[in-house]
Amino acid sequence: MERRSTGFWLLTIFFGLFLLFLYGPTITIGILSFQGPGGGLTFPMQGASLHWFRDLFREQAVGDIWGAFRRSFALGLMVMVTTVIVSVMGGLAFRKRFAGSGILFYLIIASLVIPSILVSLGVGLIFNQFGLRVHWASSGFGSQLTWTLPFGLLIMFAVFNRFDKSYEEAARDQGASAWQTIRFVVLPIIAPSLIGVGLFGFTLSYDEFARTLLTAGSYNTLPLEIYGMTTNVTTPVIYALGTLTTAFSLLIIGAFLLAAWAGAKRRARLGSDAGKGV
């Protein structure tokens, strides 16, 4: 057997410590959420049960957990759909150089380096100045788009920079209109990237705190609700909520990955059928 070098083991230990640092807090919360009825917020654990998960589904004395979850889920879907549509349109627009395209690109990316709390403050002030209601579905939606759209656009820019235009030329040679070319040629080819953009949009919105803090209005989203609970909830029920929201996030990611896998299988099958037809 080949003997591993000292450098290999040092890198392995470093990587293991990095993973522990990355996922240790989440694992710790998951473990503490399964404490018995007499459990507290720290180790050692007081028994093991599903008590705090059951307690989570009872009426809580403080907060509106499930209302906040519904708002975060609805907001995530709104942001996801908008991010996908605008990112595709922006990617198509930037395929050709136009006056001011460079400046516009840097303006789009600039929102990523502006402190999130300042974006939240700015959006809230703009809505107040125009006499508009500060609400999670309007101002909160707008502030979160300043976070998700740059990521979606960067992905689409990379995708269209590598896109082979010969596919579009072949479709036009066959008499396809511009819309038919986009619908039946371009979109199916970039579908895996669209799934990635959608995943970015939903997950970044679902757990966004800073850009929603001053734009959610009177109704909290789930991250704001959890933050509020940290000041007045002194039982592991907050850990149970954290475990369930983490599991939900992983479920969403799994669903997107499954959709990408199914799409790849379908394209491979269609390609195989086309090859046989030839």
The CATH class of the domain at 64-232, by name, is Mainly Alpha
CATH H-tier superfamily of the domain at 64-232: MetI-like
Tally of helical segments: 12
% residues in beta strands: under 5%
Question: Are there runs of 5+ residues with pLDDT below 50, and where?
Answer: none
Residue share in helices?
A: over 70%
Taking the alpha carbons of the first and last residues, their distance comes to 50 Å
Q: What spatial form do the alpha-carbon principal axes imply?
A: globular
Q: Main β-sheet, in a few words? A: none
**Annotated CATH architecture of the domain at 64-232:** Orthogonal Bundle
SSE ordering: HHHHHHHHHHHH
According to CATH, the fold-level topology of the domain at 64-232 is MetI-like fold
Structural class: mainly alpha
According to DSSP, the number of beta strands is 0
What is the average of the pLDDT values? Answer: 87
Description:
InterPro entries: Bact_Polyamine_Transport, MetI-like, MetI-like_sf. Keywords: Cell membrane, Membrane, Transmembrane, Transmembrane helix, Transport. This protein is mainly alpha-helical. It has a domain at 64-232: MetI-like fold, CATH 1.10.3720.10. Helix content is 71%, strand content 0%. It contains twelve helices and no strands. It has helices at residues 6-32, 51-56, 65-93, 101-110, 116-129, 139-161, 166-173, 178-189, 191-206, 210-213, 222-229, 237-277. Helix 9 runs antiparallel to helix 12. The chain is globular and about 75 Å long. The N and C termini lie far apart (50 Å). The mean pLDDT is 87.
